[in-house]
Amino acid sequence: MADPYSNLAAEDKAMQTAIADAMDARCKEPAQMAIRKEYLSDLDLPEGAFAVEFGSGTGHVTHDLITLAGADRALGIEPSPVMVQRAETHFASEPGLSFEIGDAKRTSLEDGSVDLVLMHTLLCHVPGPEDVIAEAHRVLKPGGILAVCDGDYDTATAQIADFDPLDQVVRFMIDQNVTNLWVMRRVAGMLAASGFDLGKRRAHSYVAEGEATYYLTVINRGAERMAETGVLFPETAEALKDEARRRVEESTFFGFMSYVSQIACKPG
Ligand SMILES: C[S@@+](CC[C@H](N)C(=O)[O-])C[C@H]1O[C@@H](n2cnc3c(N)ncnc32)[C@H](O)[C@@H]1O
Questions:
Q1: What is the tens place of the pLDDT at every residue in 67-114?
Q2: Pick from 2, 95, 202, 203: CA 20 to 30 A from residue 13's CA?
Q3: 179 CB near ligand 1 (under 6 Å)
Q4: CA 89 → CA 67, 71, 74, 86, 107, distances in Å?
Q5: What phi, psi does 40 have (nearest 5°)?
Q6: Contact 218, 244 (CB under 8 A)
Q7: How far apart are CA 152 and CA 158, in angstroms?
Q8: CATH of 4-154+178-207+257-265, one of 1.10.8.60, 3.40.710.10, 3.40.50.150, 3.40.50.300
């Protein structure tokens, strides 16, 4: 199966809605908010800065461009109409914040018009990530900042013992939903090749807490996909979903992934 995030607008509405629900759950988790705060709150933007998020999903991270990064105005660009509508509903009353349908490889932004471009968990899903990086370089002002953050997906795990079957569900989910598995280990090279000066690179650990709301969406969607593709009988998939829920109830669930952020600057 092709990564559904790589052409979300072409997926049926039920799939787009399920992904929007998962994105909302992830964005609202305190541990995820902490990651965004770690790399967005010390960017040095000029007065009145205009920031753009490429691949803005349900809009929470675009909102962070104003509240954490200190931009005056922020625009989210996103191909899925379901996502854009959800973002507009969430943030209708926020001054300076807007969303539009578009493709990060070909935006309608003018050359040299943007102070900050953000790609938060976008590049792992895009075939040809170099084209998105080139578009960011085109639209940024000289001295403008590019911030990239994504999962280091090979570190994702729910394993709590040898041969733990839940971990296979996580691995299957990554296999089915990530186009560029190694993107954060290669992005510095891509940015340098596109003419960016490299800034700070940081690792951010994510461990599911409390109700593990987002990680359960990963297990549930992974188990359902295993049933759809014939890896498991539907009853087995349901049993694995129950196993994860039960672990959360019994405080034995463990879900982890490392994220990496990379800051870069357009020279000038
Ligand atoms: C994992 S979601 C992340 C959404 C948001 N950045 C967040 O962290 O909540 C990835 C998003 O990138 C979008 N996307 C995929 N390809 C894109 C492209 N070529 N241009 C713009 N957005 C794209 C998807 O539709 C999806 O909403």
A1: 999 999 999 999 999 999 999 999 989 999 999 999 999 999 999 999
A2: 95
A3: no
A4: 18, 21, 16, 5, 23
A5: -95, -20
A6: no
A7: 15
A8: 3.40.50.150
- Ligand 1: atom nearest CA of 8 is 25
pLDDT tens sequence across 233-266: 999 999 999 999 999 999 999 999 999 999 999 9
